[in-house]
Amino acid sequence: MEQAIRVAVLGAAGRMGKEVLKALTPAEGFEIIAAVDRVSVGVDARELVGPTGPAVLIQESLGDEPLDAIVDFSHYTVAVANARKAASLGGSSIIGCTGLSPTDFGDLEAIALETGVPIMVVPNFAIGAVLMMKFAEMAAKWIPNVEIIELHHDRKEDAPSGTAMRTAEMIAEARQRVPVIPVHQTEKVEGALGGKVQGVPVHSVRLPGLLAHQQVLFGGPGETLTIRHDSLDRAGFMEGVKLCVRSVKSLNGLVVGMDKILF
Ligand code: NAD
Known about the structure:
By secondary structure, this protein is of the alpha/beta class. The protein has helices at residues 15-23, 45-49, 76-88, 102-115, 127-140, 162-174, 238-247, 259-262; strands spanning 5-10, 30-36, 58-59, 69-72, 92-95, 119-121, 146-152, 195-197, 200-206, 212-220, 223-231, 254-256. The strands form 2 sheets. Strands 3-2-1-4-5-6-12 form a 7-stranded parallel sheet, sandwiched between helices.
């Protein structure tokens, strides 16, 4: 039998972290060797996620046990330090936290190159969302006028979402011309026209009741095209998390986005 992939989960007591504790089961070839969070320290992970969860206590920081990978859903402010620690233990990082700065990406790339341990930053683990981004990239080649509307629950800290930022970047790279706006647009209310990410307007909606949704709206003469993805349950991110944990070792350096694995 193949050896289990040894994983530590960071942000383990959070909404995404708990889903990961449930999803990475021994039956599917994973062994959760540590669960890290700054809250619920000392609590048995099974108390948080039920009896099928791993038999580990929540710990305040990563120990010194060798591991294959960390899955980090804690906070962007500690993601680089976590990746550095994981690499020192021989473990790849799969970073789900959003809000990383360009400096963070530079630091992560340097860690991956210096240590030879791959690092993934994944703005969205939902396979349908990665397809939505890919389809948007394809459409942008032919229809350059586009705006993004992303909608999330009201406890999300950063705006725009990592997915919206990445979608806008992909669109900006794919479109062959930047559309000309036919009139001078005046914002009577600041932000009404959205924020611009590489020239692509992005509108962020935050409401209770939502989870994670995104609509990419293209408009050409006499036609529109809407590409929409809805995450309806956090379980929907877990197939992607498993795929990344299984695949990360075969990558090199810093890899951003699951598209590098899927396409
Ligand atoms: P959450 O607030 O429910 O969970 C975060 C957890 O991390 C909390 O338990 C918190 O105590 C812990 N934490 C925060 N700072 C810490 C630190 N310094 N050390 C240790 N633990 C710390 O948030 P969430 O909804 O689970 O989201 C977590 C992150 O994942 C956010 O950045 C969110 O945007 C992102 N996210 C990404 C995806 C994706 O597909 N990539 C999907 C959903 C959420």
